[in-house]
Design brief:
The protein is of the alpha+beta class and about 270 residues long. It has five helices and 15 strands. The protein folds into two domains: about 25-195, Sandwich (Immunoglobulin-like); about 200-260, no CATH class.
């Protein structure tokens, strides 16, 4: 069969592209979309903060019709942890619906990056602690629909099963992706809701530290080095302090004598 020139060129391009696509592992941790540059807020109850991160396409081709969903899914402190549905007055994504936000569909060319920002709002009654956030992303690549999720989308049982039995047709980085029904694992993230630490105890501590350090230097110069002018001022100051203390004690004793009633002072009246 004889091929015309344009058809032959197209066939040659397709044949040359096939090995590159075949060699691209779409689920490899260093190939899936890179979620990074997380900027997570510490929010005072009753105020809001910005949750931000970027997505970079690390594939050789363009990812298309991509959707990205971000959800607050768990609250925890050092003492306890709860699913977000069991928390009263939980934080909310201002641009989304309650604890979730889905970005408008987008596309990214090779090595292209997009930044996503969400406003997290809280109430005065929002419990203090750490709030965990999970990410989900699905998109078209080279005619295939791919789905990626972070750890927070799976129960402990599902995760343990996928990591303790990593063998499978799509086992990547010690994780059985087939068992989790995904094409890649994205990172979780978190932010905190917390009252600011009062600064006055630290200020008092700094002042006392400086004061005692200065007194230590003064005592050292007076006692060890015998600095004449400083020694004179020190003893003068000490003498004045002692004198003031003696005068205060005398005044106090005098005041006590004035208010005391002498024994038998009321007789004859």
């Amino acid at each position: 069969m004889e091929l015309k020139a344009p058809a032959a060129v197209l066939l040659l391009v397709a044949v040359m592209a096939m090995p590159a696509l075949a060699d691209e592992n779409l689920s490899a941790p260093n190939r899936i979309p890179d979620l990074s540059d997380f900027r997570t807020p510490q929010i005072v109850p009753g105020s809001s903060g910005t949750y931000e991160f970027s997505v970079r396409n690390r594939y050789n081709g363009t990812i298309e019709n991509a959707t990205l969903t971000v959800e607050i899914y768990k609250w925890a402190t050092l003492e306890e942890a709860k699913d977000i549905g069991k928390v009263s007055s939980p934080p909310e994504m201002a641009e989304g619906v309650r604890q979730g936000y889905t970005a408008p569909a987008f596309s990214l060319g090779p090595n292209q990056t997009a930044t996503f920002k969400m406003t997290v709002s809280t109430a005065k009654t929002t419990p203090q602690g750490t709030y965990f956030v999970r990410q989900r992303m699905d998109f078209d690549y080279n005619g295939i629909r791919l789905l990626m999720k972070s750890r927070g989308h799976f129960s402990d049982r599902q995760w343990d099963n996928a990591t303790t039995n990593p063998n499978g047709t799509r086992a990547v980085g010690g994780i059985n992706l087939t068992a989790l029904a995904v094409d890649g694992i994205l990172p979780d993230s978190s932010f905190s809701v917390k009252e600011p630490i009062p600064m006055w105890p630290l200020a008092v501590l700094v002042v006392l530290t400086v004061l005692f350090a200065a007194l230590a230097v003064v005592f050292y110069l007076v006692e060890e080095k015998g600095h004449p002018k400083l020694k004179e001022r020190f003893y003068k100051g000490s003498g004045k302090l002692k004198q003031a203390r003696r005068l205060s004690e005398q005044e106090l004793r005098k005041l006590r004598r004035e208010v005391e009633v002498p024994p038998g002072g009321n007789k004859g009246k």
